[in-house]
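Dear colleagues,

As part of the handover before I leave the project, I'm documenting each prediction I ran so the next person doesn't have to rerun anything. This entry is a single chain, and its sequence is reproduced below.
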Amino acid sequence: MILFRTIRRKHHRLSCLLLGCLTVAACRTEQQETSRKSGFDEFIAAYNKHIRGYLEESRTTTEKEIAEVESRIASASGDEPETLKVRLASLLRDREKWNFRTDLGDYLKISDPSEIPTDLVWENGMDQPEIGDPAAKKGGAFRRYILSFPPTIRPFGENSNNSFRGELYDTIDMPLVSLHPDTMKLIPGVAREWAVSSDGRTTYFRIDPAATYSDGKPVHAKDYLMYIYVRISDHVVNPYAKQYFRENMAQFAVYDDHTLSISLPEAKVFAPAVAGAAIPSSPAFYSDYGPDFSERYQWRFAPTTGAYEVRPEDIVKGASITQTRVKNWWAKDYNYYKYRFNPDKIVHTVVRDESKAFELFRAGELDTALLTLPEYWYEKSEIEPVYKGWIERVTFYNRYPRLPRGLYLNVARPLVSDRNVRLGIQHAINWRKVIDTMFRGDFRRLNAFNEGYTLFSDPSITARPFSIDEARNAFAAAGFTKEGPDGILRRADGTRLSVAVTYPSMPQYDRMFAILREEARSCGFDLRLDGLEATVAYKKEMQKQHDIAMGAWLIDPIMPDFHQFLHSTNARDDRGNLKTQTNNLFSWGRADTDALCDIVRQGRTIEEIKDATGKLQHIIHDEAIFVPGYTVDFVRIGSWRWLRWPDSETTKFAPPLTYDPHEAFVYWIDDDLKKETQAARRSGKSFGESNRVIDEYRITPGAAPQDAPGETGTETP
């Protein structure tokens, strides 16, 4: 979903010894405590009162700002009137939004079925192509590895924003509705039908009566109110969620056990997908929710509506976590799901070294391996199991928007706050050498933040090239004109041009930054390497204590999200202090950027959003706060031949809008082929080398991209 999927891709590690100590203490605490009421009912009234106060305060503030801007327009001159008029239009839009939300009534509302409009047009999304392959078989165990054991299996709260959360929840939980990973049209999830109000702001959902959690308990509409409560109450540190729900959702209304509506503050493009991204939370599971939530629920798997669960006995601290397919999963025979989620078990084993993980794959202890890095494709996979076809290799071209992989510059830090220094850093980072030496030229330079969206990216933006002259000129403009005995530039007061880059220390990154540092020195720039254990690096970045951070955040394919990265509310608090635990690693905040971020979130037309996203990309480029890194439009995978991938009329290997083909869960284990392959290994029999290229979904330069949902027009429903 848009709120929680964007930030799940950083690798984090935690010491087994420390983790063991923490979990033992948590277990003792749980044994001593007794169950209590969750506080849900009391929260409903308190939060509704809080939102009423927030809306009234926001409306009053907006009215004052409108009066001030109107007064200034009357006496302004030059270009100022036009700027003020843009600001006034935004304020008038805000006023209308506050009025609409106030008229709605309670934010969390228990309504009557008679309040559902009678003129709704209900949809079910059953006209889209199937996902997967009818030849898929159920059963078997799929074996993968993870680099580190997660610090928690909670889906939210402290330390939950780790890479493994995606495996447990983000790719498993079923939202109310989702987007088809090929056509990008709406398909059913927990909701079997949905309808949009005439004003385009409210989406109504009918929950499938068969929908249950993995523990067998039925899903009810009221569970979506619980979903909000457990994520934004004061029992959990979750500032982004609190802000998101307060500002971007107008109302959650429950009409009966299986009908609810979710209203957005404004009519917007893709409104049903945004509203329908919500997932339910089991009241029974959270019956013990309270101030000690983080400790009490640290190792308790939250029941999911999806196909896999984690049983207590399948958590081996520091070693492995196993997901088990839910027996009699309620959606197992439904369109879009019946050919997916095929293995009975998915076993994630901790292997802290990627080279060791590859050796386990080579030995047949792991079923698959990502081979996108050239050293794995060209060298490490040149082995007998590949030559004899026991392991099959595939290059899969996808259509996923390009990850904003690169360097995030923290403008709140000394030196980096100077735009000329940032411009110099842009030219002092030699990504081309990294691409040529580490990636054999197979990868390419990323040009812009949030690149690769069909309508919402500006292809005219080009990353600044490595240039010693350009870098030194920019540094000179910042006052760094003297070269010290070590070759590093200095200001007249002796300030040395030295900035640290924080990154998760792993062989690939260590080698990469060694290259970048050496190249930067030729520009008179000391790029200090701050390679840390992944969890430590992540915590440092969340505390905004970095100068530069290496990042590669997962993004959503429907449209870019700038708000979490650029909006001032994610940069500083009301007192002007840096706000921690947000994804604004730039610490960036400016009025014009805020307004554009709001348009991207709340835009009513494609053209409006397209204009705002283009301007934001140019601001990021012009202010030089992001140094684009490298990108690739394919994934290379090696699989033992018993791990099968689709080759059906509707799905070629995997859906095109998947970042990692494993996330679509369209693969399956063929036990007969496994026995045949293992026998071949013993006898030395060859099936012939298999190297496939799946390019059915490839977008070639100059070709017209496939339309995203709603992109054939400009108006919202």
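The radius of gyration is 26 Å. The first strand starts at residue 108 and ends at 110.

All the best with the project,
I.
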